[in-house]
Amino acid sequence: MRQFVVIGRDVPTDPDAISLSDIPGAGRLDLCCRCVSAGVFLSHGIRESVRVHLVIADEFTVTFDADSLRHLHPDERNVAARVRDALAARDEAIGHMPADVSPGVELRRMGLDATLDRLVGDDGRGPDGTLVQLHEDGDPLVDAALPTDPVFVLSDHHDFAPDEAAAVDERADRRLRVGPELLHADHTITVVHNWLDTDGYADY
């Protein structure tokens, strides 16, 4: 299983504040939507064993599970509509029990800390995998050993805020960078997929 945790700090939690005619105006939700698409889609298909978790305003987490997704298309408008539907269902998320939005999409009342605890525990090595931070100051991806069941965490167009950095740092097994240039978050996810798909750039 590959998982990506994407921090969307400015995305509004009110579904009425998300206009499908101005997706970038909703806290750069467009970038978060592209992260979902980069995470779960292949050309003419959907990846297996991938989940993307959008942490919205440190209050809610919307999870896209590629293995059970139905009727989701890779364009930003379609993904944004699903995020808006998830936020509209937030009253159905009680405690840490999720609201089922549509096949393969759930919303939980969890911020970053709780989401990381659920995925990797407080030591970064939980039931679902090992936490890997994607950051411009990390070690080169090409030199790193392939992680088992990795949970990658990255921020949107902002750098990690101090509290986010602390939550990640205390759990992360390692910090990696994908290359010498700064990339958009969705492009970073694509590079990481390629790294894993090719067994560390060794098998084409």
- Major sheet details: 9 strands, mixed
CATH superfamily: SPOUT methyltransferase, trefoil knot domain
In terms of DSSP E residues, the strand content is 25-35%
Radius of gyration: 16 Å
CATH class: Alpha Beta
| Tally of helical runs | 5
CATH domain fold name: Alpha/beta knot
Structural features, described:
The protein is α/β, with parallel strands linked by helices and 204 residues long. The chain has one domain (1-204): 3-Layer(aba) Sandwich (Alpha/beta knot), CATH 3.40.1280.10. Helices cover 27% and strands 27% of the residues. The chain has 5 helices and 11 strands. The strands form 2 sheets. Strands 1, 4, 5, 6, 7, 8, 9, 10 and 11 form a 9-stranded mixed sheet that branches. Helix 1 (29-40) packs across helix 2 and helix 1 (29-40) runs parallel beside helix 5 (185-197). The radius of gyration is 16 Å and the shape is globular. The mean pLDDT is 94.
How are the SSEs placed, and which strands pair?
Elements: E1 2-8, H1 29-40, E2 41-42, E3 45-46, E4 50-56, E5 60-65, H2 76-88, E6 99-102, E7 105-108, H3 112-120, E8 125-126, E9 129-140, E10 150-155, H4 162-169, E11 174-177, H5 185-197
Parallel strand pairs: 1-4, 1-10, 9-10, 9-11
Antiparallel strand pairs: 2-3, 4-5, 5-7, 6-7, 8-9
Helix pairs in contact: 1-2, 1-5
